[in-house]
Amino acid sequence: MKAKKIGEQVDIKSPFPLFPQVLLLVFAEDLECIPGFQQKVFHIEQPSEFTEDQPILNLVFDDCEGNDKLNFEVSNPDFKVEPNGSLVALKNITEAGRALFIHARSAQAEDMAEVLIVGGKDHHGSLKEIFKIEDGSLGILRQKRAIVATPILIPENQRPPFPRAVGRVIDSDGTEGSKFRLSGKGVDQEPKGAFKINENTGEISVTRSLDREAIPTYQLQVEITDVSGKSIEGPVLLDIIVIDQNDNRPIFREGPYVGHVMEGSPTGSTVMRMMAFDADDPATDNALLRYNILKQTPDKPSPNMFFIDPEKGDIVTVVSPALLDRETMENPKYELIIEAKDMAGLDVGLIGTATATIVIDDKNDHPPEFTKKEFHATVKEGVTGVMVNLSVEDRDDPATGAWRAVYTVINGNPGQSFEIHTNPKTNEGMLSVVKPLDYEISAFHTLLIKVENEDPLVPDIAYGRSSTATVQITVLDVNEGPVFHPDPMTVTKQENIPIGSVVLTVSATDPDILQHQTIGYSVYKDPAGWLEINPTNGTIFTTAFLDRESPYVHNNVYTALFLAIDSGNPPATGTGTLQITLEDVNDNAPAIYPTLAKVCDDAKDLRVVVLGASDKDLHPNTDPFKFELSKQSGPDKVWKITKINNTHAQVSLLQNLKKANYNIPILVTDSGKPPLTNNTELKVQVCSCKKSKMDCSAANALHISMILILLFSLFSLFCKFS
């Protein structure tokens, strides 16, 4: 064989004229035997069809020991390798996937080769693209000086015994005494010890089973050292590629899977998508998934209500819209057991399953219907509240607005005496009286009620006669209490009118005009006890003097309550309010304040006290007030009183007095007609004052003129009889 440069592509005429040209790479020539496939990567073009038993290409495997017990396995079960190394199809196949992997094993060695299929719908790159390794790291020999390191392909999940020879590095110079040294991730870096090299022969061994899903490729460094361990060649890169095995089942990772579809949806409506994950190499059939429905529960009305797209995982409806009727279903919720199988769904593929729940959603295709055309209710006059519940039937989903009812009174309610509301639990219409009914006005009422849904009906459905109903209401007569007219009753009277004076004659009527009852009267609340009422004719008269200044009078108004009682069995009672506005008369004399004053015996200011006057009556029976002293004569004429304004006066001394207590008679008169005068003694204490301290404790005996007392008494008698 003529030698080619390392890495140079060689064109080889295919021995099979019906198939495209096979491209292969020549790694080296005249190298010593390395166990395994002599060519590990092939590229073929996608034919229109792989023909049964027609050779596709030829594989050469050599374990360097005679190939004892050599056996081939192909990743696609539709292909096999003949004992002579020919790859053939077991049947006519138009699509074989993106790659084929051939695993060869003998008593001495095993290896993996890859056939990449180029062309057709899917165009695939080389093995370096499938395994995502760097450019220039596959398909050619790496050569730096004398080191030849070809990429090594190792199947994952190999079984013992270990270590297992997987390849060899060549020292083309063969320097005497030199040794090989291997380093990198998988040797002296984690995961440490996965690979080792025979320092003398350059044989690479794997020490344990590899997992492609953990680490798909390893990049190691090979060096040649002298006896002392000093590097004399390298390092060069050695790529180790882990070939995928179908060792991972598809997994549904995004559950729970719940889909919804509206009832009556057209055939082919998409419900949901099921997506499984396979950790195997996505560039191989090991991760090429196909989906299938294993089981449907319930299986009514059809055991095949749904279909799943085997490639995309989309679940669609396959029954007619008529069968997708929620109201006729045994259960509007379906559970599907979904299977995902790798190896494109072939029998050898691994399987993962998940449950998809599909809910048939309701649409408003059934209007609510009253259970009866006519309902009856009985209610007492004068009361309010719910009097009857109207029931309806609706076949739609109770959890939706397609079931919830809305009621409306459309006739017979001009006075807005009735209202209807929906019971959220039962969906019944609760018809209530909101304004008391009067038997004497109308003993019967007829209402027309309609019911609709919160959600609108679908376009081809309409509300019918059953969505309206009549309610016949009978009003029961009750014995109603008499009513006062007007209420409250008001009247104005002067206070202090004679006892027995008529205040007012009240009038009450009985609403039960058809019962012809008599009415009696009585006092209910009379806080001051001033009034009485004639039980027959309702005349109210006084039993005591009315006093405007009484604590029972507020803002000049006295309030009392009276009862009107009919002759029913049992009797009914009505309450009326009487408000008497009391006019003021001058029946209260004014009073002065204060009634005690103190002054120093040596005071320079002889003003003793400012007096004020007050009157319980109203203007004009109050101020201006007139202030006076009883007449003074002889030596006792020592006081004077001076008016300040309409309500106040100043009491002063005309001279200093000895320390003693003095009683001064003060006359104060109001402006009423006739006026009233009040006689009050003002007590004045003349005290000893030293160093700003007033001492009144040692006052002498009372000093008051007998003549002053006599004059004061005569003046009071005169005022009383004048």
TrEMBL record:
Protein's UniProt keywords contain Metal-binding: yes
One MF annotation (Gene Ontology) recorded for this entry: calcium ion binding
High-level lineage: Eukaryota, Metazoa, Chordata, Craniata, Vertebrata
Organism expressing this protein natively: Terrapene triunguis
Membrane-spanning segments: 701-719
Function field: Cadherins are calcium-dependent cell adhesion proteins. They preferentially interact with themselves in a homophilic manner in connecting cells; cadherins may thus contribute to the sorting of heterogeneous cell types. May act as a negative regulator of neural cell growth.
A GO BP annotation: cell-cell junction assembly
Any Pfam family: Cadherin_pro
Subcellular location: Cell membrane; Cytoplasm
Entry's Gene Ontology cellular component terms: adherens junction; catenin complex; cell surface; cytoplasm; side of membrane
Quaternary structure, from the entry: By contrast to classical cadherins, homodimerization in trans is not mediated by cadherin EC1 domain strand-swapping, but instead through a homophilic adhesive interface which joins two elongated EC1-EC2 domains through a region near their Ca2+-binding sites to form a tetrahedral, X-like shape.
Name of the molecule in the record: Cadherin-13
SMART domains, A to Z: CA (SM00112), Cadherin_pro (SM01055)
Domain Cadherin: 154-252, 253-370, 371-484, 485-592, 591-702
Membrane topology: Lipid-anchor; GPI-anchor
